[in-house]
Design brief:
alpha/beta; Protocatechuate 4,5-dioxygenase, Chain B; globular
Length: about 280
């Protein structure tokens, strides 16, 4: 059967992608950010997955105010990088895994989670920046990717508890797939940031660090954190962090097993006007 072997969590700041695309990664400002992913890139090379299930949010690229799915799973064969107003990023085509994605959709919908099934979608920085951070510049991504979009842009957005329970359902779906696949699940977005209004530029390092502590050691409690705390403490866009709970809920301890092993933790401010957080966790026997 397929199994989830690890989870990764990372911010998906669009300026990070621009820094990579424009060759600025060695500049002093950006080098401090990219140094936190050197371990991660080597780890991914040493532990290559067969599939990455990547949780992200669309930024009014594939979806708009005309059509806002709460949860959307990509079941297509490929996903081109989106043009977000300045041309598509110069990164490879994202290839999907239709068979596993369709199986997950079938399983999760039968568990009463309503998913939107998407067969064609351009993917924006929410998905391509995490791939770039973890894989570096490349002519091809190392494995198929299943895009899973969560609405954290237009209220109402799903609760942390809903995201966590969805992660548990995704784990069950993966484990019921009858091919031997090594699957990693990545949760992306955040950390604290606000892009508009009187609090534009807000970064709350103390809260971010505590969030990292808690999602590692007490994810059940984090799952019950109300939306207002994310917004008040981490800014309007800090609500993106509920997407980390999808990935965290897919780990073995959420299903009654052993706690995962923390392999890597990184936090840095600022990257553009955002705090960058990053974790890697591996399953334990």
């Amino acid at each position: 059967m397929a199994k989830i072997t690890a989870s990764a969590f990372t911010s998906h700041v669009p300026a990070i992608g621009a820094a990579m695309d424009l060759g600025k990664t060695e500049e002093p400002y950006w080098q401090n950010v990219f140094s936190g992913y050197e371990f991660s890139r080597q780890w991914l090379k040493d532990n290559p997955p067969d599939v990455v299930f990547l949780v992200f949010n669309d930024h009014a690229t594939a979806f708009s105010l005309d059509f806002i799915p709460t949860f959307a799973i990509g079941t297509g064969a490929e996903y081109p990088p989106a043009d977000e107003g300045w041309g598509p990023r110069p990164v490879p085509m994202v290839h999907g895994h239709p068979k596993l994605a369709s199986h997950i959709a079938q399983s999760v919908i039968q568990e009463d989670f309503d998913l939107t099934i998407v067969n064609r979608m351009d993917v924006d920085h929410g998905l391509t920046v995490p791939l770039s951070l973890m894989c570096g510049k490349t002519d091809a991504w190392p494995c198929p990717v299943i895009p899973f979009a969560v609405n954290v842009v237009q209220y109402p957005v799903p609760s942390g508890r809903r995201c966590y329970e969805l992660g548990r359902a995704i784990r069950r779906a993966v484990e019921s797939f009858d091919e031997d696949l090594n699957v990693q699940i990545w949760g992306t977005g955040g950390m604290s940031h606000q892009l508009q209004g009187p609090r534009a530029g807000l970064i709350n390092k103390e809260w971010d660090e505590k969030f990292l502590d808690r999602i590692i050691s007490e994810p059940e409690a984090v799952a019950d954190m109300p939306h207002i705390e994310y917004v008040r403490e981490a800014g309007a866009e800090g609500i993106e962090l509920v997407m980390w709970l999808v990935a965290r809920g897919a780990m073995g301890d959420a299903a009654g097993g052993s706690a995962p092993k923390l392999l890597h933790r990184f936090y840095h401010v600022p990257a553009s006007n955002t705090a960058v957080g990053h974790l890697i966790m591996e399953e334990t026997a």
